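User: Predict the complex.
Assistant: Input components as received:
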Amino acid sequence: MSEATPVPDAKPWNDPSAVPFLQINNVTKKFGSFTAVNNVSLDVYKGEIFCLLGGSGCGKSTLLRMLSGFEDLSSGQIIIDGQDQAGIAPYDRPTNMMFQSYALFPHMSVEKNIAYGLKRDGLPKAEIATRVTEMLSLVQMDDFATRKPHQLSGGQRQRVALARSLVKKPKLLMLDEPLGALDKKLREETQFELINIQESLGVTFVVVTHDQEEAMTLSSRIGVMTAGQIVQVGTPREIYEFPQNRFVADFIGSVNIFEGRITEDGEDHVMVRSPDAGGDIYVPHGISGVIGQKVAVAVRPEKVQISKGDLGDLRNKLSGTIDEIAYLGNSSVYQVRLDSGKMLRVSQSNQARSEESALTYKDRVNLGWAGSAGIVVTS
Amino acid sequence: MNSLPLGSRIGALLGRMGLKGRLLVIAIPTVWLLVFFLIPFLVVAKISFSEAAIARPPYLPITEWVDGFFTINLNFGNYMFLLEDPLYVAAYLGSVKIAAISTIIALLIGYPMAYLIARSAPERRNLLLMMVILPFWTSFLLRVYAWIGFLKGNGIINNLLMNVGIIDEPLVMLQTDFAVYVGVVYTYLPFMILPLYANLVKLDEAYLEASADLGARPVTTFFTVTLPLSMSGIIAGCMLVFIPAVGEFVIPALLGGPDTLMIGQVLWNEFFSNRDWPIASSVAIVMLFVLVIPIMLLRWAQASGGGES
């Protein structure tokens, strides 16, 4: 924060000499014949907010519970700050967890809840009191110290749970759907507070969430999980702009997928012939493939331009008829029926206020996107 | 009208009498309590203020109508007598002592059992609960008689211990306070386990995990989280054991000895041996207060103690 503190390398994962703070090596968890976590390896660096993002049942919570020590590993290894966690009980781990349900002790006041972990360490009373007061003011709950959890609102409980999990200054803080129980407005506010707190304390966060927006806002990097495996790890921008496969492209944001076959593999581009698009799609970078290989081209809705007039110089051009419009205020989403019959999703920010220039149902429109907007995804 | 089912016709009838839905639901148990609890209680209370007599019924009426004067004669002598004769005070104290110690023993045995059942796999819980309730399928009296077979001089326990060679002489267990404790704890243990189980099974495992996560070992977690959160179950279980145990009559009569003094037996003797209904009634009324006061105190403590159920 202050200038004196050296700003840590913003992207330690790009530095091959950096030592990961948390190492997850080939971790597998089986419940009977069901494999909840399948051979996951992951490195998280000090000071990161790392999000495990995935749908329900993808194994993200199980992975988190293994980090906390609530579940045993079927195989693999977890190393936190150089220490193998095998055989270490939850109460001896240098980690703390903020539970999805918050799990605030209902029979204890807010301050007793926060002091609980410090008392277990046998700290002197005066120090406990000081640190509890510090935490209370950090999460702006000073006035609620003597309340019981059932006298608090959802947002206040969330703050107390955060304070309780941070007060022991854990090396690694795990947050299980930290904002899941809050309404949208409160969630947005809290996201930024969470980032501020994390930056001021320098604790490494591992967040589990199914909410892609939450993951995008909070995290330094995201690991997308499905069926017990991590399918892609990257910064929010990497995950969004360069999804490595169809699942990631589809799971994060919305996307238009054109199935096709490679017809030309040039020096700096490939051409994909797609019956959906009714022609060839030009993709300048990404993969090089064999001619005839089946691939899919993913194009984000906001990267497609839509107009009744001429679109000018764009590499990929299509035309179609507007089928449906969803007006969202700041933007509009158009469902356009292409001449091939495929539906294309296009979103445009609403810059003009008037309705005159607006596109309406049944309008014939020209569509197009820059060559660099599309991305080839396999599998 | 006639085509309506009986239920709705009764409903319509009661509706015309101003008794509808919610009121009816409350009215039925209220009437039940009034007829089968409050009125008999008032009758007993009335008898406790009357004077014993060799008559039928064996007491004098407390109201008189003489020469146009209506008089009520309240005889406090019965209550005074309870205080004067040390037998009664000793019997009350003896009952409370036996009931309190039995309750604590039942709690110490019942809590781990309830905890284990609540923490066992869901599909096994019903079987285990069934085993707790199973003794109720046999008559209570038979089960207490069975204990005589276990505890008597040449009973199963003594024979076993002598055959193994731990003891040479049979232990005197029957007709002692020990036998009464065994009988009371055995009989009322399910009443301790069931409310504790109902409480512990609801205990969210996340609290235990949160406690472990914050550095508490399992024993600490038990005393700082599990135990306080199950307090309402403990209180309910203790009430269900303590209250009937205080008034227990059969167990001390069958298993207890001559020096086992419990108020239930005194009550029985006053009614059936001495046929002194007024004294017996006052014994019953005092017993009620002995029980009601701690219940009220506990309720008050619970209400002011915490918000959680």
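Chain A touches chain B through 27 residues (CB under 8 Å).
Let me know if you want any component modeled separately.
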